[in-house]
Design goal:
about 15% strand, two-stranded antiparallel ribbon, 5 helices, 17 strands, three-stranded antiparallel sheet, about 300 residues, alpha+beta
Amino acid sequence: MGAGCGGVTAAADGGNDAPAVTTEEACNKVAKALCDALNGCAPFYVSEQYGDEPTCITRAALSCMTDQSTGGITRTPADLVACAQAATGIDCTDALAGNYPAACDPKPGTIINGMACGSNLQCQSTYCNKTGMCGVCGPRQDAGKACTTNDGCLKGLVCASSVCVKPAGPSEACNLPGQPCRTDLACSSSTAPGTCVAKVGVGGACADNGDLCDFTKGSICNTLATPKVCIAINVAKPGDSCSLASKTGCVGGIDPCSSILLGGVCANPAEDGAACGDNAVCIPPATCVDKVCRLPSAPNCM
């Protein structure tokens, strides 16, 4: 198994004379660079997902530390520092899409395809094909090949209708669900089969596709209006009131609201390892796996 999270040190830039950093320090640098980028251009998204930027940093650093404690990885603190330096000031579109600089690409691990894994970083292929907490290492697929998640595709591709495809760019053709647009774009059905267009803010039209509203900027489609338009929404923290009438959801979406239709109160997100589902949502990057909040890496699958 890997060394303890905070005990590994490495030169900050890989040089022998550079000051050493611990894994914890390196993970904090990466987390801050990525959360700074998100909060700088999409503060609503950060508020809706995490509650605030400090929580974003804490959660991203925790996930990084969990990765680093997993056996079979080869990524070092120096690699993390290089990623943090490269990701500082990353374009918002890339940050939201998880399209990070090459210095942040997953570093191949030591485990061969077909063997048990709990993290992409353990695998020589950089992909752990999970069916729950654990899975087996397998190849990332090229365009046109079968997939179950975006991680199962090569960099720059996404998994759409169980096939790896390259997301369409501005003014390019789209056809949902098989040919999606880039994350900062939406597929407008005003033309056939469809065209990728820029998402719109509050007051913009969203008649042909509710996803035309830029959710990352706090805009959603009011489907009850005629014509349908994008309206502003708010995010309430746990313990605060939420309702459709006040256009207020909760950290984690509408699910933590005890009664979004009649008006209710936002519940606390579920802790890592706690039950999830119904009104209990997980704090990213944890997801609800088998009704339990789990971080992306599972250290005990080997």
